[in-house]
Each structure stands twice: as C-alpha cells, then as structure tokens.
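During the no-cost extension, the postdoctoral fellow (Dr. R.K.) reprocessed legacy sequence entries with the updated structure-token encoder. One reprocessed record is reproduced below for audit purposes.
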Amino acid sequence: MLDQRVVLSPISPTPVQPMDRLGAALGLAAGRLWVKRDDLTGLAGGGNKVRKLEHLCADALAQGCDTLVTGGGRQSNHARLTAAAAAVLGLRCRLVLGSDPPSTATGNLVLDHLLGAEIVWAGPLDFYALEAAIDTEAAAVSAAGGRPYAMPLGGASTIGQLGYVVAALELRAQLPDTSLVVVADGTGGTHAGLVAGWGSHEAVLGIDVGTRPDLDHTVPRHALEAAARAGLPAPTGTCQIDHTRYAPGYGEPNPATREALDLAARLEGLVLDPVYSGKAMAGLIAAAREGGLPTDGTVTFLHTGGMPALFSPRYADWIEQHP
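Re-encoded structure tokens follow.
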C-alpha cells in the first residue's frame, strides 16, 4: 500500500538538520536536537499535507474522480495544498472554509485563489459541522454531474496517514537513534501515521493546537488502522499528547508560541507558524525545561510548514507589535 501514491513532492526524502544552538539554549548537548524539514516538500509553499495528498490523490485517480473536495479554516494549509495538488493533476478543487469571507484575501487564502480553487464560505463551524459541510459539497458536485473525492479535514483518513508511515520509515533511516519525534496535533493524522510507522506511541509526542476535541481517542484508533493498512504490527505503548499549549484557543497567539517562534528564528533561522509548528515548538521547549524529554537518543522536531499564515494581518501585526 505504501507505494500507491502520486509524486507531488520533488524533494524526497526531506532533509534533517541539527539545531545545536537552540538545543544549547534548552540545555541539550550538541547533536541531540534535530529538525525534519517537511516544510520543504516543494509543492506550493510546502508542508506536511503533501505526503498525505500523495496517497489520497492516488486513490482519487484510481476511483476516476475529477474534483477534490475538502475544507479547513480560512488559513488552512491542507486547503492550499489540496488546491495545488488538484492543479498538478488536472482536477477541480472545491474548498469549504469554516468562516465568513474576509474583506481582503491574505496568507494562504491568496494562494487558494491563485491555484484556482472554488471556495465555499460555510461560516463559523465547529470541527464536526465542517466535516459534514464537506460531505454536503461533495454531494452537490455529484448532483451536478461531477465525480467528487471528499477528504476529511487535514487529510486525516487511513489512506492519508500512510504518508506519515512512509515519513517515519524515512526518518528512522536518516536518524536511527531518534528516541522522540515532536509534532503539532491538528486533526491527528500526522501523529497517527508516525506512530504506525515507528511502531510505538512512546516515540511520538503530539502537541495539541486546538483543532479537534477528541485527539486522545482518534490518534490511537487511526494509528492502529494505518498500521494495519500498511501491513505493520499494531503500535505499542500509550498515546502522548500535550493539551496545554493552545490557549486561549485554536489559532490564537500566546506568549509561549511567540517565544518559540523567536528562538527558532533567531537561533536557527527556522521560520515557524503561529498556528501549528510554533505551538509544537512551544511544547518541545516546555518539555525540555520541565525534564520531559528522553535522556538519551535524538529528539527530532517535525516542521510541518505553514509560513503563509504569518502574512495575514492578524499574525503580521502580532509579530510587529511584540518584538
């Protein structure tokens, strides 16, 4: 199953690089802290969703679909990259965005328009209401004579999670002494795929960013399903998720995230985003300071991308006003 994908990323494997200056600031010895650069996947600004889309789009093509239907927030990285994948493959793309339309398009939304996506503004919706709206739009495409392929938020299906089974195997070959991978948990699909590929929940720490209310249940279930589909043993151990980093809410800036952005940028030249990777780095920093990291082996931060969100006024003003 792992080789049933279309190639959307020209950069494979994505590189790993040490973060010794940041590691030293956190009391870690040289060579212990690394980053895997899945922000460099190479499609329309990059990001972790490319790996999932390689498997999801292969499934869509195999089913003869002509329209990719998915959704997310106004600054959704998954929506942007789905639009890009559709463009590469000659498919239509319909994006259901869970907010009201802004007066001016910024950040990821600019790229959604540039890539030719059809955008449906669904208004403010919670996680499961937005999932239902995606299904409604897929039904509308079908009723109009199209052949839709509906993707859940974040591409977090068993097929999409195969992308991060592949990534886990890739990382094990690059850094075989990795004892912990730290990743942002939005819909939980990346976390689940990494666990399935690694074979252990103890090897992955997810940092909840406030997208999905039931991560503690969905990540273990999805990891088990992804492992079974990939022909791998069921993962062992207990799911690890830090739920304390996203206050006051999804996408909301907070001081710990700002510190994480500053440290990564000013010590490593690494640009994170305030919604996903910045909160994940805040969780890694807290774990290092509180003694929550393994005492041996390599700690690897998975950079999931998301830079375009920084150029929305909400976050650009926050960066400028709090130097």
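The two ends are 47 Å apart (CA to CA). The chain has two domains: 16-46+156-321, 49-154. The remaining legacy entries will be reprocessed before the final report is submitted.
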